[in-house]
Write a structure and sequence with these properties.
Layout (H helix, E strand, L loop, with lengths): L1 E3 L30 E4 L3 E5 L5 E5 H4 L11 E4 L8 E6 L10 E5 L12 E3 L13 E4 L4 E7 L12 E7 L9 E3 L19 E5 L2 E6 L12 E8 L3 E7 L20 E4 L2 E6 L12 E6 L8 E6 L19 E7 L2 E8 L12 E7 L8 E3 L18 E4 L8 E8 L2 E8 L4 E6 L12 E3 L2
Parallel strand pairs: 5-29
Antiparallel strand pairs: 1-4, 2-3, 3-4, 5-6, 6-7, 7-8, 9-10, 10-11, 11-12, 13-14, 14-15, 15-16, 17-18, 18-19, 19-20, 21-22, 22-23, 23-24, 25-26, 26-27, 27-28
Length: about 450
């Protein structure tokens, strides 16, 4: 661990803290919001008290860990009042035996590095375990990790989910593999589907993107599966595509519908970043659904792109609008943040853009497009703003703040904006990850 300020120390008999408020990421129990960001070979943590630490692979494993923090989820797994951090490292193994999941437990001194648990899928070959990871709160709480390159029944890269129940003291139990061949899960595992490429959780609902699913003769058209939890680690679900009733448009080859998914506040959103629109190739679009928990009946809403009414910007070739999605809680409603890291701004290629779009009525976060300067950086070529999105959910605020990696010359850092006002809410210059910074710690919803 490389330290800026005070480091998290090893200790024994940690004192208990009051349970963290719903949605608050608070690793040290001081009541202040903490932020964690993945930076390829380490996780950078900025504590609300002002100090920062770097946790690298050698501090939690026996060797360097690549892709560390590609995806992360935060929740108090052991009930001690401190938020714990689930960290993925897909395909980090030099022996080509797949990725790993690490659990770092919170404490009065912050995240511990002396009692880390490592989880794996048990796959013989690369599985991309942890391409995305989430926590499903319940009895028991589950850690769910997407493994889109997992071989299922001999079909390479069919993809699956690896699920671990978490019991007393935050100890994970026996893993279960969930795939399109599993009971209750619609579809059939096929080579190259990539089931589990992207996942999102809200309550007992799990949304799974399968962007390389063939739909009829449309290669890599993509699909989205909505699963409801049944029992301890079982699921039952339904799959939708762009050919489903009520969904605008149609499934076309290489759309890759389901490349990004998000769920919260009764909304499901899914993107098709490689969708071509009119004369422009690979423009990208986002599809909305209304959803009532437990119903297994996602109701299709509108689809939008940068040419849609009320959406800032304009369609351009190879934008890949919707490469990343994140739903923000905004007043009584919600808005979706859409990452478009390949967006050109003026003559700056791949500068990147983050677009906030209200979902229905009641959102206090209006439609607005944010560039690198809005997050405290600059608009510059290959800035790829929007390649990773995070949020700050403070209990005293009526909206989430939005986090993104921004750049200025050769420096990269995390910027924070208030989507209700459009103003900058601060930066985290200590969270420095170069162009490799990827995932953020997202609270369990």
């Amino acid at each position: 661990m490389f330290v800026l300020g005070v480091a998290s120390a090893a200790f024994s008999a940690p004192p208990a803290a009051a349970a963290p408020k719903e949605g608050l990421v608070d690793f040290d129990g001081d009541g202040l919001v903490d932020v964690a960001a993945g930076a390829y070979t380490r996780v950078d943590v900025a504590y609300g008290s002002g100090h920062s630490v770097w946790i690298d692979g050698r501090s939690i494993s026996k060797s360097e860990v690549t892709n560390l923090g590609h995806s992360m989820a935060a929740h108090d797994l052991n009930g001690d009042g401190y938020t714990d951090l689930v960290v993925s490292a897909p395909n980090h193994s030099m022996s080509n035996k797949g990725g790993a999941i690490f659990i770092l437990y919170g404490s009065a001194n912050g995240l511990r590095t002396d009692n880390v648990r490592r989880l794996a899928s048990g796959a013989t070959y690369s599985d991309s375990l942890g391409w995305t990871v989430a926590v499903m709160v319940g009895q028991p709480t589950l850690i769910v990790a997407g493994a889109p390159e997992l071989t299922v029944a001999g079909r390479k890269r069919a993809g699956g989910l690896v699920v671990w129940p978490v019991y007393a003291a935050g100890v994970p139990g026996k893993r279960t593999i969930v795939s399109e061949n599993s009971s209750g899960v619609p579809g059939t595992s096929e080579a190259g589907d990539g089931f589990g490429q992207n996942i999102a959780v809200s309550g007992s609902t799990l949304v799974v993107g399968t962007p390389y699913e063939n739909v009829g003769k449309a290669v890599d058209a993509g699909s989205v599966t909505v699963l409801e939890r049944r029992g301890a680690v079982g699921f039952k679900g339904v799959t939708v595509t762009q050919n489903s009733a009520g969904v605008p448009g149609s499934a076309e080859r290489y759309d890759q519908f389901g490349s990004a998914v998000a769920i919260d506040r009764g909304w499901i959103v899914a993107s098709a970043p490689w969708e071509s629109i009119g004369k422009y190739p690979e423009v990208g679009s986002v599809q909305t659904f209304r959803y009532q928990a437990g119903s297994l009946k996602p109701k299709p809403g509108s689809a939008f792109n940068q040419n849609s009414a009320g959406v800032p910007g304009a369609n351009e070739r190879i934008d890949h609008f919707g490469q990343h999605l994140l739903i923000l809680r905004c007043g009584a409603g919600a808005s979706v943040a859409v990452g478009t890291p390949l967006e050109a701004i003026g003559k700056k290629s791949n500068a990147g853009l983050v677009t906030v779009v209200p979902l229905g009525s009641g959102s206090s976060c209006p439609a607005r497009a944010y560039d690198g300067s809005d997050f405290g950086g600059a608009v510059q070529s290959d800035g790829t703003l929007g390649r990773g999105l995070g949020l700050v959910r403070a209990p005293s605020a009526d909206h989430d703040d939005l986090l993104a990696v921004t750049t200025k010359k050769l420096d990269s850092f995390v910027g924070r904006v208030n989507p209700a006002t459009g103003g900058r809410a601060g930066t985290y210059p200590a969270l420095w990850g170069g162009t490799d910074m990827t995932g953020f710690a997202l609270p369990a919803a």
